[in-house]
Protein backbone atom coordinates (compact mmCIF):
# COMPACT_ATOMS: atom_id res chain seq x y z
CA UNK A 1 0.00 0.00 0.00
CA UNK A 2 1.19 3.52 -0.73
CA UNK A 3 2.11 5.51 2.37
CA UNK A 4 0.03 8.40 1.08
CA UNK A 5 -3.07 6.22 1.41
CA UNK A 6 -2.56 5.63 5.13
CA UNK A 7 -5.00 7.67 7.15
CA UNK A 8 -3.14 8.68 10.32
CA UNK A 9 -6.02 10.53 11.99
CA UNK A 10 -7.80 7.52 13.62
CA UNK A 11 -4.50 6.36 15.16
CA UNK A 12 -3.53 9.81 16.43
CA UNK A 13 -7.03 10.26 17.88
CA UNK A 14 -6.85 6.83 19.54
CA UNK A 15 -3.46 7.51 21.17
CA UNK A 16 -4.67 10.86 22.47
CA UNK A 17 -8.01 9.46 23.72
CA UNK A 18 -6.83 8.36 27.18
CA UNK A 19 -8.35 4.91 26.55
CA UNK A 20 -6.73 1.95 28.32
CA UNK A 21 -5.85 0.67 24.83
CA UNK A 22 -5.69 2.88 21.74
CA UNK A 23 -6.40 -0.06 19.46
CA UNK A 24 -9.54 -0.94 21.45
CA UNK A 25 -10.58 2.70 21.05
CA UNK A 26 -9.96 2.64 17.29
CA UNK A 27 -11.72 -0.71 16.91
CA UNK A 28 -14.82 0.54 18.70
CA UNK A 29 -15.06 3.39 16.21
CA UNK A 30 -14.50 0.97 13.37
CA UNK A 31 -17.22 -1.37 14.65
CA UNK A 32 -19.62 1.55 14.88
CA UNK A 33 -18.87 2.69 11.33
CA UNK A 34 -19.12 -0.87 10.00
CA UNK A 35 -22.49 -1.37 11.70
CA UNK A 36 -23.77 1.86 10.18
CA UNK A 37 -22.46 0.75 6.80
CA UNK A 38 -24.56 -2.41 7.03
CA UNK A 39 -27.74 -1.38 8.85
CA UNK A 40 -27.39 2.36 9.45
CA UNK A 41 -29.60 5.21 8.19
CA UNK A 42 -27.80 5.55 4.85
CA UNK A 43 -26.69 1.95 4.82
CA UNK A 44 -25.81 -0.01 1.79
CA UNK A 45 -27.80 -3.18 2.46
CA UNK A 46 -30.02 -2.47 -0.52
CA UNK A 47 -27.07 -2.17 -2.90
CA UNK A 48 -26.56 -5.28 -4.97
CA UNK A 49 -22.77 -5.55 -4.61
CA UNK A 50 -22.85 -5.18 -0.82
CA UNK A 51 -25.73 -7.64 -0.56
CA UNK A 52 -23.80 -10.16 -2.63
CA UNK A 53 -20.96 -9.90 -0.10
CA UNK A 54 -23.16 -10.18 2.99
CA UNK A 55 -25.10 -13.05 1.37
CA UNK A 56 -21.87 -14.93 0.81
CA UNK A 57 -20.03 -14.26 4.08
CA UNK A 58 -22.97 -14.11 6.48
CA UNK A 59 -22.49 -12.96 10.07
CA UNK A 60 -21.09 -14.36 13.31
CA UNK A 61 -23.21 -14.63 16.45
CA UNK A 62 -21.68 -11.52 18.06
CA UNK A 63 -22.40 -9.36 15.04
CA UNK A 64 -25.93 -10.71 14.56
CA UNK A 65 -26.59 -9.71 18.18
CA UNK A 66 -25.10 -6.27 17.48
CA UNK A 67 -27.31 -5.93 14.37
CA UNK A 68 -30.34 -6.91 16.45
CA UNK A 69 -29.45 -4.39 19.17
CA UNK A 70 -28.97 -1.68 16.55
CA UNK A 71 -32.70 -1.98 15.94
CA UNK A 72 -33.15 -1.68 12.17
CA UNK A 73 -35.33 -4.79 11.98
CA UNK A 74 -36.46 -4.28 8.38
CA UNK A 75 -32.81 -3.92 7.33
CA UNK A 76 -31.97 -7.08 9.30
CA UNK A 77 -34.89 -8.93 7.69
CA UNK A 78 -33.85 -8.01 4.14
CA UNK A 79 -30.25 -9.03 4.77
CA UNK A 80 -31.31 -12.29 6.44
CA UNK A 81 -33.77 -13.09 3.64
CA UNK A 82 -31.24 -13.28 0.80
CA UNK A 83 -28.46 -14.64 3.00
CA UNK A 84 -30.69 -17.49 4.17
CA UNK A 85 -31.75 -18.26 0.58
CA UNK A 86 -28.14 -18.56 -0.54
CA UNK A 87 -27.12 -20.55 2.54
CA UNK A 88 -30.07 -22.92 2.22
CA UNK A 89 -29.21 -23.73 -1.40
CA UNK A 90 -25.73 -24.78 -0.28
CA UNK A 91 -27.18 -26.64 2.68
CA UNK A 92 -29.54 -28.66 0.48
CA UNK A 93 -26.80 -29.62 -1.96
CA UNK A 94 -24.56 -30.78 0.90
CA UNK A 95 -27.39 -32.54 2.73
CA UNK A 96 -28.31 -34.44 -0.43
CA UNK A 97 -24.70 -35.64 -0.83
CA UNK A 98 -24.32 -36.54 2.85
CA UNK A 99 -23.52 -40.16 3.62
CA UNK A 100 -24.54 -41.25 7.12
CA UNK A 101 -21.78 -43.09 8.97
CA UNK A 102 -22.30 -46.81 9.46
CA UNK A 103 -20.36 -48.83 11.98
CA UNK A 104 -19.58 -52.50 12.07
CA UNK A 105 -18.09 -54.76 14.72
CA UNK A 106 -16.43 -52.92 17.68
CA UNK A 107 -17.85 -49.65 16.43
CA UNK A 108 -15.40 -49.49 13.53
CA UNK A 109 -16.50 -47.29 10.72
CA UNK A 110 -17.42 -49.12 7.54
CA UNK A 111 -16.23 -48.00 4.16
CA UNK A 112 -18.83 -47.09 1.63
CA UNK A 113 -19.11 -48.52 -1.87
CA UNK A 114 -16.39 -46.96 -4.04
CA UNK A 115 -14.22 -45.89 -1.07
CA UNK A 116 -10.76 -47.32 -0.58
CA UNK A 117 -10.97 -46.97 3.17
CA UNK A 118 -13.45 -45.63 5.68
CA UNK A 119 -13.26 -41.84 5.99
CA UNK A 120 -11.76 -40.43 9.17
CA UNK A 121 -12.76 -37.31 11.07
CA UNK A 122 -15.88 -35.23 10.67
CA UNK A 123 -17.78 -35.25 7.40
CA UNK A 124 -17.50 -32.45 4.87
CA UNK A 125 -21.05 -31.44 5.73
CA UNK A 126 -20.47 -31.14 9.48
CA UNK A 127 -17.24 -29.22 8.82
CA UNK A 128 -19.15 -26.88 6.53
CA UNK A 129 -21.78 -26.33 9.23
CA UNK A 130 -19.11 -25.60 11.81
CA UNK A 131 -16.84 -23.40 9.67
CA UNK A 132 -19.75 -21.34 8.39
CA UNK A 133 -19.80 -19.54 11.75
CA UNK A 134 -16.19 -18.49 11.32
CA UNK A 135 -17.06 -16.34 8.31
CA UNK A 136 -18.57 -12.94 8.96
CA UNK A 137 -18.90 -9.93 6.72
CA UNK A 138 -18.43 -7.53 9.64
CA UNK A 139 -15.51 -9.41 11.22
CA UNK A 140 -13.76 -9.43 7.82
CA UNK A 141 -14.36 -5.74 7.27
CA UNK A 142 -13.10 -4.80 10.74
CA UNK A 143 -10.08 -7.13 10.44
CA UNK A 144 -9.04 -5.54 7.12
CA UNK A 145 -9.07 -2.08 8.65
CA UNK A 146 -7.30 -3.31 11.78
CA UNK A 147 -4.36 -4.56 9.69
CA UNK A 148 -4.18 -1.15 8.05
CA UNK A 149 -4.28 0.56 11.48
CA UNK A 150 -1.36 -1.53 12.69
CA UNK A 151 0.63 -0.66 9.58
CA UNK A 152 -0.24 3.02 10.04
CA UNK A 153 0.87 2.98 13.69
CA UNK A 154 4.30 1.65 12.76
CA UNK A 155 4.58 4.12 9.92
CA UNK A 156 3.75 6.98 12.32
CA UNK A 157 6.50 5.91 14.75
CA UNK A 158 9.01 7.38 12.32
CA UNK A 159 7.57 10.80 13.17
CA UNK A 160 9.46 12.24 16.17
CA UNK A 161 6.38 14.28 17.15
CA UNK A 162 4.26 11.14 17.44
CA UNK A 163 6.63 9.20 19.68
CA UNK A 164 5.99 11.37 22.79
CA UNK A 165 2.25 10.77 22.27
CA UNK A 166 2.92 7.03 22.53
CA UNK A 167 5.08 7.56 25.63
CA UNK A 168 2.21 9.43 27.30
CA UNK A 169 -0.47 6.90 26.29
CA UNK A 170 -1.82 4.22 28.61
CA UNK A 171 -0.30 1.14 27.02
CA UNK A 172 -2.33 -1.58 25.34
CA UNK A 173 -4.65 -4.40 26.28
CA UNK A 174 -2.80 -7.72 26.33
CA UNK A 175 -4.48 -8.88 23.10
CA UNK A 176 -3.47 -5.84 21.10
CA UNK A 177 -0.02 -5.74 22.72
CA UNK A 178 0.50 -9.24 21.32
CA UNK A 179 -0.28 -7.95 17.84
CA UNK A 180 1.94 -4.88 18.33
CA UNK A 181 4.90 -7.08 19.31
CA UNK A 182 4.28 -9.48 16.47
CA UNK A 183 4.21 -6.67 13.95
CA UNK A 184 7.36 -5.12 15.46
CA UNK A 185 9.21 -8.45 15.28
CA UNK A 186 8.48 -8.56 11.55
CA UNK A 187 8.69 -4.96 10.45
CA UNK A 188 10.27 -2.60 13.01
CA UNK A 189 13.41 -0.95 11.59
CA UNK A 190 16.53 -1.45 13.72
CA UNK A 191 16.91 2.32 14.09
CA UNK A 192 13.72 2.40 16.19
CA UNK A 193 14.30 -0.68 18.31
CA UNK A 194 16.23 1.11 21.09
CA UNK A 195 13.34 3.50 21.56
CA UNK A 196 10.47 1.13 20.84
CA UNK A 197 10.99 -1.84 23.15
CA UNK A 198 11.79 0.04 26.40
CA UNK A 199 8.91 2.43 25.66
CA UNK A 200 6.19 -0.13 25.01
CA UNK A 201 7.28 -2.44 27.84
CA UNK A 202 7.49 0.63 30.09
CA UNK A 203 3.97 1.89 29.33
CA UNK A 204 2.57 -1.62 29.63
CA UNK A 205 4.01 -2.09 33.11
CA UNK A 206 3.26 1.39 34.43
CA UNK A 207 -0.34 1.36 33.25
CA UNK A 208 -1.17 -2.20 34.26
CA UNK A 209 0.05 -1.30 37.76
CA UNK A 210 -2.08 1.85 37.73
CA UNK A 211 -5.24 -0.10 36.82
CA UNK A 212 -4.34 -2.78 39.38
CA UNK A 213 -4.04 -0.08 42.07
CA UNK A 214 -7.46 1.26 41.04
CA UNK A 215 -8.95 -2.22 41.27
CA UNK A 216 -7.35 -2.78 44.70
CA UNK A 217 -8.75 0.50 45.94
CA UNK A 218 -12.20 -0.30 44.49
CA UNK A 219 -12.23 -3.46 46.65
CA UNK A 220 -10.80 -1.72 49.72
CA UNK A 221 -13.38 1.06 49.37
CA UNK A 222 -16.19 -1.50 49.74
CA UNK A 223 -15.05 -2.16 53.31
CA UNK A 224 -17.46 -0.28 55.61
CA UNK A 225 -14.47 1.25 57.42
CA UNK A 226 -13.70 3.15 54.21
CA UNK A 227 -17.23 4.43 53.80
CA UNK A 228 -16.15 8.04 54.06
CA UNK A 229 -13.03 7.68 51.93
CA UNK A 230 -13.09 8.89 48.32
CA UNK A 231 -13.26 6.59 45.30
CA UNK A 232 -10.13 8.19 43.82
CA UNK A 233 -9.94 6.96 40.23
CA UNK A 234 -11.37 3.53 40.98
CA UNK A 235 -15.07 3.81 40.08
CA UNK A 236 -14.69 2.21 36.65
CA UNK A 237 -11.75 -0.02 37.61
CA UNK A 238 -13.67 -3.22 36.80
CA UNK A 239 -14.39 -2.53 33.08
CA UNK A 240 -10.93 -1.00 32.68
CA UNK A 241 -9.21 -4.09 34.09
CA UNK A 242 -11.44 -6.24 31.86
CA UNK A 243 -10.29 -4.17 28.88
CA UNK A 244 -6.61 -4.42 29.90
CA UNK A 245 -6.84 -8.20 30.13
CA UNK A 246 -9.04 -9.07 27.16
CA UNK A 247 -9.76 -5.91 25.17
CA UNK A 248 -13.05 -4.20 24.41
CA UNK A 249 -15.24 -1.88 26.47
CA UNK A 250 -17.51 -4.06 28.65
CA UNK A 251 -19.39 -1.08 30.09
CA UNK A 252 -20.48 0.26 26.70
CA UNK A 253 -24.22 0.04 26.12
CA UNK A 254 -25.23 -1.73 22.88
CA UNK A 255 -24.96 0.50 19.82
CA UNK A 256 -28.42 1.65 18.77
CA UNK A 257 -29.54 3.19 15.50
CA UNK A 258 -31.11 6.63 15.66
ZN1 LIG B 1 -6.96 -3.40 22.94
ZN1 LIG C 1 -18.51 -11.02 13.11
Bound molecules: zinc ion
Strand percentage, roughly? Answer: under 5%
Quickly count the domains.
Answer: 1
Number of helices: 11
Structural class by secondary-structure content: mainly alpha
Low-confidence stretches: none
Q: Mean of residue pLDDT?
A: 92
Rg over CA atoms: 24 Å
Tell me about the largest β-sheet: none
User: Which H/E pattern describes the elements?
Assistant: HHHHHHHHHHH
Rough shape? extended
The tally of beta strands, per DSSP, is: 0
**Distance between the terminal alpha carbons, to the nearest Å?**
35 Å
Helix content: 55-70%
Describe this structure in words.
The chain is extended and about 75 Å long. The model has no long low-confidence stretch (mean pLDDT 92). The protein has 258 residues and is mainly alpha-helical. The chain has eleven helices and no strands. Bound molecules: zinc ion (2 copies).
